[in-house]
Design brief:
Length: 366
């Protein structure tokens, strides 16, 4: 099915990123959908007039998301963004190597979303023109539903426990507001934790690449050292030969041909010496690059430690918020029990009042 879609769809934008999907079990952790950065593309299907985001890893489509006007792409960090797909019942996350790539993808997502909205409006206009009788009763029904939705509930309480009942309901409203505030704080903490986990995964991937490059560079350094020692020995040998030739040139020459041959040999030896010195300088530059790689590795390890510390702080805040929520729920249950008790007392008193009224009525009749 996927290849047939590709035949009739045209790519309008492509980039490379690490692909993640939200864990369907916890709805909090990111699961990597690709081991390495893969190509992520926007496609336009002219036959269906829809836009999609597609990414293929090997022979499997790891992203197949149809863009709707209700979707929103959110940049949660400098190099990470995400969007929710209700049709696929998941949340996709993309980790980019640069901020510029993230900005370009976000702008393209916004443009495609606007194009999808215009396409939907045109489709609705064509449908309404073809079926004009479907919208006749809509305004009246909407007005009735709006009036019913905004009608305030009625509450009538008689008896001496009225003040306690209203106080209990006020406490219940406060507990509900506190519950919503704690939920919001937990949600913000979970989102921040997701972003940190995604950034941590990206940093770990970069760290693994740097470690591999550093190990390769370290192995190369040993070879470079051996080559450098060999070049230095050969340079010393060539210098000795040059000194011998210069000494020979300083003596009376046996003939003109021998002198010319010695001059050519001297020039060849000097050219070889310059080449060896250039190779030595190149090896020293490579050694400096290895030092920079080690420094970059130390910086990445420091950032990983900072992220782990922030993650630990967020977990402690989430646990504290959960404890507060549990306490508030327990207080709410106690308030509900108290309200039920007050209602029972009011019912008993109302029954007593009815009995007194009947007794008074009988006395009046007599």
């Amino acid at each position: 099915m996927y290849p047939r879609h590709r035949e009739r769809e045209q790519p309008i934008f492509s980039t490379r990123a690490h692909v993640f999907q939200i864990d369907p079990a916890t709805k909090r952790n990111w699961l990597p959908a690709s081991k390495h950065a893969v190509t992520v593309s926007f496609f336009y299907d002219a036959s269906r007039n829809v836009y999609r985001i597609i990414s293929v890893g090997g022979t499997k489509a790891i992203i197949n998301s149809t863009i709707t006007p209700n979707m929103t792409f959110t940049k949660t960090s400098q190099k990470f963004g995400q969007w929710a797909d209700s049709r696929a019942n998941t949340v996709y996350g993309l980790g980019f190597s640069t901020e510029q790539q993230l900005q370009q993808f976000a702008e393209q997502f916004k443009e495609v979303k606007e194009a999808a909205r215009l396409a939907r409006e045109k489709s609705q206009e064509r449908f309404e023109l073809a079926n004009p009788g479907l919208n006749i009763a809509a305004p009246q029904l909407s007005q009735e539903l709006s009036e019913e939705r905004h009608s305030p509930p009625l509450l009538t309480v008689n008896g001496p426990g009225e003040e306690k009942l209203f106080r209990s309901r006020s406490a219940e409203v406060e507990l509900t507001a506190e519950k919503e505030r704690v939920k919001k704080m937990l949600s913000e903490g979970s989102m921040c934790e997701l972003n940190l986990e995604a950034e941590l995964f990206t940093l770990q991937d970069s760290n693994a690449k740097l470690v591999a490059a550093l190990q390769e560079a370290n192995s190369s350094v040993e070879q470079w050292k051996k080559q450098l020692a060999e070049y230095q020995e050969e340079t010393d040998r060539l210098r000795d030969q040059v000194a011998d030739l210069e000494a020979q040139l300083g003596r009376p020459a046996a003939g003109q041909p021998a002198k010319e041959e010695l001059s050519r040999s001297l020039e060849e030896l000097e050219a070889s010496l310059r080449a060896k010195e250039q190779e030595i300088q190149n090896l020293q530059c490579r050694k400096a690059d290895v030092g920079e790689l080690e420094k970059e590795k130390e910086e990445i390890m420091q950032r990983l430690q900072d992220l782990e510390r922030r993650n630990t702080e967020l977990e402690s805040r989430a646990q504290s918020a959960e404890k507060t929520l549990a306490t508030n729920l327990e207080e709410q249950e106690q308030a509900e029990v108290e309200v039920q008790r007050i209602i029972g007392v009011l019912d008993v008193k109302i029954g007593d009042l009815k009995g007194l009224r009947e007794s008074l009525a009988k006395l009046v009749d007599k």
